């Protein structure tokens, strides 16, 4: 009897495997690259070896280490890297996979790894004291969690972040959606960043003192996948999917493809509700965009240059500056005109009942403590001085973020996605899951966040990392279940 069942099971497994490979072949056949061979060779990110044979587990070794990196032919610098490359290796997995990262610290300074945008348990969030102790030089730590959401995420330290991210510690984590319906085979992950170098060495992370902190220090080399003026060779008019992350510690990127349109299909937490088209798109530090483009030669030449234009993020951010070249697109092959016309991409649930939400008001502030010293804060208090928002698991809150300073702040919440609300208090269209949102100077933005589960002390902060280190950080304490008799004071 048992052997009969076993034989039946074997048959079933064989049949299923055949079915599966037929399906996989069908998708592979419909997803043929139309690009010239080696089209993205200059943009390739370092890879990482998955040493676990289980198809649903990605297990990798990651090490923070100082290494020589080449920014452009002939220009090298000793940067802080993950696995010797800048950016760190692209970690790739699919939604639902378990990710195990054996991390070791070969730097002379303590560090941690924070998984930006991922809904991980608090113990895996990389924040010293609240998640784990610092990983001391020579020590190791194993991160181990399930990837609940598809999208482009990224990893970076959460110890002296402005310095460590500025020195080169960041990498992309792409979680594929097995049911993804975009159907564009030619995809590039673009990690935008900058680095401040002085000859062949890194510039001090506290240049400009307190004033440098107030503005947010930007590097003097703008990088795409670790290269200055990176390039690709594209066939004119072929659709490409660009998965873009801004990993710079302070710099905003306003992307301009010489006026050619970007179709935005997703943001921080994967696909958005429907596609939108725009000639300029902006990524504040920490944000991601999922874009569809069909580059073709510019009118006045054979090449097309992706540039970052001037973007006003506050006092002193556009004066005496010019657009920066990011990526040079050269063309090869006969032009095609591909069309991509998907509108509806993802459905979102019913919007939260506003009567059942709790309101939290947070003001992003700047104070002068003496003639040359400034501190950012939340509600006038620098980090550590006690602003803690309280929330219960299952609770939905509306946070009103008022920026009363003269500089914009990309506000990032750890561990939970949120939706941005419009002036009527409705989710902005198209609906999208965000974990980082720009709060422009002297402006108010409202977000709606549901604390789905995972109790703990979670951080929120400005992702201009100089601002975060300068005091613009706070905590939200998410406690297990609602206590019917208990009193819950939401006033921070
Ligand atoms: Cu990418 Cu606490 O941040
Ligand atoms: Cu800020």
Structure characterization notes:
It is a single chain. With 492 residues, the protein is mainly beta. Helix content is 10%, strand content 40%. The protein contains four helices and 31 strands. It has helices at 2-30, 161-166, 209-215, 465-469; strands spanning 57-72, 75-82, 91-94, 98-105, 114-116, 140-146, 151-156, 171-176, 187-195, 197-198, 201-202, 221-224, 230-234, 240-246, 253-256, 262-267, 270-278, 280-283, 288-293, 304-308, 324-331, 358-370, 373-378, 388-392, 396-403, 409-413, 418-421, 436-439, 444-450, 456-462, 473-479. It has a six-stranded mixed beta sheet, with no helix packed on it. A five-stranded mixed beta sheet has the order 13-21-20-15-18, with no helix packed on it. It has a five-stranded mixed beta sheet with strand order 23-22-25-29-27, covered by helices on one side. A hairpin with a 2-residue loop joins strand 10 (197-198) and strand 11. Residues 1-5, 7-30 and 485-492 have low confidence and may be disordered. Bound molecules: CU-O-CU linkage and copper (II) ion (CU). Residues 114, 116, 156, 158, 286, 412, 414, 459, 461, 463 line the site of CU-O-CU linkage (C2O). Copper (II) ion binds next to loops.
């Amino acid at each position: 009897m048992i052997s009969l069942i076993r034989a039946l099971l074997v048959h079933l497994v064989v049949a299923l495997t055949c079915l599966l490979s037929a399906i996989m072949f069908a998708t592979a056949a419909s997803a043929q690259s139309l690009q010239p061979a080696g089209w993205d060779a200059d943009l390739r990110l370092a890879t990482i070896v998955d040493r676990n044979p289980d198809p649903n587990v990605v297990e990798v070794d990651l090490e923070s280490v100082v290494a020589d990196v080449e920014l452009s032919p002939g220009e090298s610098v000793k940067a802080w890297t993950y696995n010797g490359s800048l950016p760190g290796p692209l970690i790739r997995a699919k939604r639902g996979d378990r990710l195990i990262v054996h991390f070791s610290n070969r730097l002379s300074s303590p560090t941690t790894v924070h998984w930006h945008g991922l809904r991980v348990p608090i113990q895996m969030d990389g924040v010293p004291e609240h998640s784990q102790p610092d990983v001391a030089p020579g020590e190791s730590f194993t991160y181990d969690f399930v990837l609940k959401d598809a999208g482009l995420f990224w990893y970076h330290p959460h110890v002296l972040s402005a310095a460590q991210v500025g020195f080169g510690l960041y990498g992309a984590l792409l979680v594929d959606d097995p049911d993804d319906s975009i159907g564009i085979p030619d995809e590039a992950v673009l990690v935008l960043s900058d680095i401040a170098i002085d000859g062949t060495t890194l510039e001090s992370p506290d240049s400009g003192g307190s004033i440098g902190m107030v503005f947010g220090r930007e590097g003097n080399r703008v990088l795409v996948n670790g290269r200055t003026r990176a390039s690709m060779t594209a066939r004119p008019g072929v659709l490409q999917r660009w998965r873009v992350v801004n990993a710079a510690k302070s710099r905003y990127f306003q992307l301009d493809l010489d006026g050619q349109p970007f179709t935005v299909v997703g943001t921080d937490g994967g696909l958005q509700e429907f596609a939108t088209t725009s000639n300029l798109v902006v990524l504040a530090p920490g944000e991601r965009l999922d874009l569809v483009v069909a580059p073709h030669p510019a009118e006045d030449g054979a090449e097309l240059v992706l540039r970052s234009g001037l973007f006003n993020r506050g006092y002193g951010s556009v004066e005496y500056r010019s657009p920066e070249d990011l990526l040079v697109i050269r063309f090869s092959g006969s032009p095609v005109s591909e069309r991509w016309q998907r509108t509806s991409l993802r459905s979102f649930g019913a919007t939260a009942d506003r009567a059942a939400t709790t309101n939290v008001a947070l003001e992003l502030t700047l104070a002068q403590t003496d003639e040359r010293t400034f501190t950012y804060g939340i509600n006038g208090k620098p980090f550590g001085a006690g602003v803690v928002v309280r929330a219960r698991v299952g609770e939905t809150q509306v946070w009103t973020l008022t920026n009363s300073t003269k500089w914009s702040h990309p506000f990032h919440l750890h561990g939970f996605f949120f939706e941005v609300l419009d002036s009527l208090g409705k989710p902005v269209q198209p609906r999208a899951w965000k974990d980082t949102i720009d709060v422009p100077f002297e402006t108010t933005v409202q977000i709606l966040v549901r604390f789905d589960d995972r109790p703990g002390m979670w951080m929120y902060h400005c992702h201009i990392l100089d601002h975060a280190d300068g005091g613009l950080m706070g905590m939200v304490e998410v406690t297990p279940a609602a206590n019917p008799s208990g009193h819950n004071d939401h006033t921070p």
